[in-house]
Write a structure and sequence with these properties.
Order of helices and strands of chain B: HEEHEEEEHEHHHHEE
Shape of chain A: globular
Helix content of chain B: 25-40%
Distance between the termini of chain B: 51 Å
Strand order of the largest sheet of chain A: 2-1-3-4
Order of helices and strands of chain A: EHHEHHEHHEHHEHEHEHEHH
Radius of gyration of chain A: 19 Å
Strand order of the largest sheet of chain B: 1-2-5-4-3
Strand content of chain B: 15-25%
Shape of chain B: elongated
Helix content of chain A: 40-55%
Strand content of chain A: 5-15%
Number of strands of chain A: 8
Structural class of chain A: alpha/beta
Distance between the termini of chain A: 36 Å
Number of strands of chain B: 9
Oligomer: heterodimer
Chain lengths: 291, 226
């Protein structure tokens, strides 16, 4: 049995539990034990905490990493943002003794110590490297006859293990292919969805980032967008709703890679609580059922 | 000789102020900064008067930092310039006068009061209109800034949620119901669900000074500004 400490982050359990539901169904079928962390906190959110106070951000990350160290397990994230925050903190703390000592000075007051003993992995890496494509393919009982556009999410390009920043995006692509979908290339896969810039400039974020992607995805004939990141999913779903106030209408369904896998593994869509989506995912899936 | 004098001055204040003495540093030769609790400023002035007959009060600088008022009391002592710094939260919009100890502080305190709208405590002449006209509106002081910290408006709810609840996306009862219906735990193991964990998280945040930087009020469990 493959075992990982499971870092859920904030957005998935609090806003998009449908991703967590799908992920747990997928893990069950591929033989992956995700051990929940009790008492964890936000990774933390990078824009505010890391920019304001690096030591605070490192301390919060280190505290989260100690939960995985206590379990003696590497840590797996479902969220691109949590992945980047935690892997960066892990790298900094492993290689910068001064910062590690300063963080540990605080952690020790609470009986904790960051030892640098665990690795941080995105779920895409775990599925590709630990589970393997063959096992994933064997679990597919209901191939999805869909044309999909992949949106990997900026943080998935963050790479410490290889000079190839496409390592994880390519893993995601290969995993998605196992579900029977046809992947359409729309040429703007690497463009940010605009989620981070929403706080600074909503119009720029929606019209100069998201809309450009949506237009190209629609032109490429995709039935849906598949993401690996909850924040990107929020942007794709809520962004399409918000774009209506700018006179633009798009209705492209957006689902997470875990949901695509769960559907292809034969999990009934009703169990996946797809009604939580803010884009027409349920309609798409019901249409597929009829087909 | 000067170095000894400077060190003695710092030691004298540190020993007599105890915990109210926060920090001291020498910016360069003959230029010393001492930071003290605001409640200790009068005591500092009295201590300086007691020990240094050549003490000369120069002026007070007031700076509106957004969340706090910073007061810098500048003194000249035998060729050395000493600045006593104190920081007061802007919610407490008062300044304890030192004019009864140093009459020369009378006008500058009134000027600060006029320009920043600060209420003077135990000032011998607490009258408005030293540098402003007497009918100047109370709510429009030329140098007073709004009560604001360093976070832009859209980042405030995120910071507030992170510090107060350990999680940046507060859970709604609708999502809790959906989680339960799907057989998931209500709070997904978050620190806020457990008294010991959230208490540890809060203490760590305090240890890192993040809450101080963003202006978080621990009693009210929210930012000091909206």
């Amino acid at each position: 049995m493959i075992r990982y400490a499971f870092f859920l982050g904030c957005q998935i359990p609090m806003r998009l539990p449908n991703i967590e539901i799908a992920a747990r169904k997928v893990f069950e079928r591929v033989g992956l034990e995700a051990v929940d962390l009790l008492g964890y906190s936000c990774c933390p959110e990078p824009v505010i905490s890391r920019l304001l106070d690096e030591m605070a951000a490192l301390t919060i990350s280190a505290r989260n990493l100690t939960f995985a160290e206590d379990l003696g397990l590497d840590l797996m994230t479902l969220c691109n943002g949590c992945y980047e925050t935690l892997i960066e903190a892990n790298e900094v703390l492993k290689h910068n003794a001064e910062k590690r000592n300063r963080v540990n000075e605080i952690l020790k007051r609470y009986g904790r110590e960051y030892k640098g003993k665990v690795e941080v992995k995105h779920v895409v890496e775990v599925l590709y490297e630990d589970v393997g494509l063959d096992k994933i393919k064997n679990c597919v009982v209901k191939p999805q006859k869909l044309k999909i556009a992949l949106h990997y999410g900026c943080h998935l390009y963050r790479e410490y293990k290889s000079p190839d920043i496409m390592r994880k995006p390519n893993m995601m692509k290969e995993i998605a292919v196992q579900t029977g979908v046809e992947i359409v290339n729309y040429g703007l896969e690497r463009l940010c969805c605009g989620y981070p810039s929403m706080q600074a400039d909503e119009e720029f974020s929606l019209k100069k980032r998201l809309l450009i992607k949506l237009d190209r995805i629609k032109d490429a004939g995709a039935d849906a967008v598949v993401t690996a990141c909850p924040a990107c999913m929020i942007q794709f779903e809520m962004g399409q709703i918000m774009l209506r106030s700018y006179g633009v209408k798009h209705s492209i369904p957006c689902i997470n890679l875990m949901e695509l896998l769960a559907l292809s593994f034969g999990v009934p869509y009703k169990e996946l609580h797809l009604e939580l989506h803010r884009s027409p995912v349920l309609q798409l899936v019901k249409r597929m059922e009829v087909v | 000789m000067t170095a000894d004098f400077e060190s003695n001055l710092i030691s004298y204040l540190r020993e007599n102020l105890g915990e109210d003495f926060l920090e001291a540093y020498k910016q360069r030769e003959r230029r010393i900064f001492v930071k003290v609790e605001p409640s200790a400023v009068r005591r500092v002035v009295q201590l300086l008067k007691n020990r240094y007959p050549m003490l000369r009060f120069m002026t007070i600088s007031a700076v509106d930092n957004g969340l706090d008022m910073e007061y810098l009391y500048h003194f000249h002592i035998d060729g050395i310039v000493l600045t006593v710094r104190s920081l007061k939260p802007k919610e407490d919009n008062t300044l304890e006068s030192i004019a009864y100890l140093i009459p020369a502080a009378n006008f500058i305190e009134r000027e600060i009061s006029d320009l920043f709208g600060v209420t003077l405590i135990e000032h011998p002449e607490p009258k408005h209109g030293l540098v402003l006209t007497k009918d100047w509106p109370d709510d429009k002081r030329p140098l007073k800034k709004p009560l604001e910290g360093i976070l832009p408006p859209k980042a405030r709810p995120v910071a507030e949620a992170l510090i107060s609840s350990s999680c940046v996306a507060p859970i709604s009862s609708f999502i809790q119901r959906k989680r339960e219906a799907a057989g998931l735990s209500k709070s997904a193991g978050f620190a806020f669900a457990d008294e010991k964990s959230i208490s540890e998280f809060h203490s760590m945040i305090k240890d890192t000074n993040l809450s101080e930087k963003v202006g978080f009020d621990w009693e009210k469990r929210r930012l000091r500004y909206k």
